Every structure is written in structure tokens, then in C-alpha cells.
Amino acid sequence: MLLVNASAHAEIGPAAPSRRSAFRAWSRRRPFLGGTLTALAGVEMFFSGQLDIGKIHVQVGIEGLQATIIPVLLVLLGVLAVAMPVHRIFYGVLALAVSVYSLIGVNLGGFFLGMLLSTVGGVLVVSWMPKPTDDATAEKRDSALFDESSPPLASSRS
């Protein structure tokens, strides 16, 4: 019975890609690490703003609103950067600006840890570039070869 099952699996052909390899391929096409760090910074800032020290818990006025809005905005920016990598520069610059403002608005930026995470995440989101496909690089190379206005790639004269 065991040999029959093993031979049946061998006849099927190459195995389908696993979930792990499919996720890895998906995450390489996006600023995944930067978006994740930005979202984690928002979660950290949210919980640092909700801390009680003994019986002291004060959130009054605009400061209480900032302690909620800034972390939610950072989580949203991190998720949007991963979901829509085309707009990554806009989301990354907003995340950087919000992270710097969190130093004033949310408990010293989530006790500096949240601000550091969101700053690094924002920089990673802005600096991420998609890898060019083989067709695009071949197209650039071909257009450079046949474009008369551009200088030749390599000269044959010595």
C-alpha cells in the first residue's frame, strides 16, 4: 500500500509551490519589511499611549486624540504600503512625517521605540524598488541599441 501511494505521487509530476514559497514570492514584490515595521510601530505606540501608572491615567483634549489617531494612521500607512506598492513613496514620506511628530504627540514617540521602528519602516518603504523583469531589461537594452540619439554601448575602435 505504501509503495502504491509513493508511486502515485511520483507520477503526478512536480510538486505545486508551497504556501511559504508563494508568500515569499508575493512579499518580494512589495515593501513588506518596511510596511510591517511601520504597522508594528503603530501598534507599539497605541499600547504605550494606553498605559496606566498606578492610578494615574490622564488623556484630556487633543493629546488623547493624538494618542489614538497617530498609531492608527501608522498602522494604516504600513498596510497601504504593502497593499499598494505603486504609491510607496507617498506612504513612506507620510509615515516619516507622522513618526517625527509622534515624538511630541504620543509619549515621546512610544518611548522612542515606536518612533524608531516607524522611522526605519518609512525609510525602507521609500527606498524599496521593484526588481525589473527580464522583458523590461531586454526592452531597454534593445531600445539603447537601436536609438541613434544615444551613444553606442561599446565602440569597436581602439
Polypeptide structure, described:
With 158 residues, the chain is an all-alpha fold. Helix content is 72%, strand content 0%. It starts with a helix and ends in a 12-residue tail after the last helix.
Sequence stretches where pLDDT stays below 50 over 5 or more residues: none
Total helical elements: 8
Q: How many β strands by DSSP?
A: 0
Q: What structural category do the secondary elements indicate? A: mainly alpha
Q: What is the string of helix and strand elements?
A: HHHHHHHH
Distance between the termini: 72 Å
| Radius of gyration over all CA atoms, rounded | 25 Å
Average pLDDT level:
80
Helix content: over 70%
How would a crystallographer describe the biggest sheet?
none
Shape: elongated
Strand content: under 5%
List keywords for this structure.
single chain; 158 residues; mainly alpha; 8 helices; elongated
Topology:
Blueprint: H1 2-12, H2 19-28, H3 32-49, H4 61-83, H5 88-105, H6 107-111, H7 113-127, H8 134-146
Helix pairs in contact: 3-4, 3-7, 4-5, 5-7
Quick overview:
The chain has eight helices and no strands. It has 158 residues and is mainly alpha-helical.
